Amino acid sequence: MLQTEKALYVRKDSDDNYPQQSSVSDFIDIYVPIHFDNTVVGVIQVQSVAGAVLGPLSSELNIVIYVLLLSSLLVLSIVGGIFHFFVLTPIKLAGSLARSVSAGNFEGRTIPVYGDEIGDLVEFEYNA
Hints:
Layout lengths: L7 E5 L14 E10 L2 E11 H53 L14 H11 L1
Helix pairs in contact: 1-2
């Protein structure tokens, strides 16, 4: 540890100091070197229960996950609404016209709404 001259941590399954400080079985040891006159003269060890260190990070991560999930649901519902309005509705209108023509009713008309492929399909049925 003293050769790296950088802070490091070690995560252990149990506390090896007696008496045992906690009934929790997951600990984090943090080692920070002490510098004096550009040389390492010692190391400070800080031992903590992993839940105390990682718990707040876990709750923040949960909040980020929930926000991402809700925002993706919002985006998905907006895209679904746009898809329904611009694609499914003209197809349903063209389908209802085709059903009425196949039933012998030639009075039905649709008006092409868009200048894309679906509009061309409706216009084709409109002119047929």
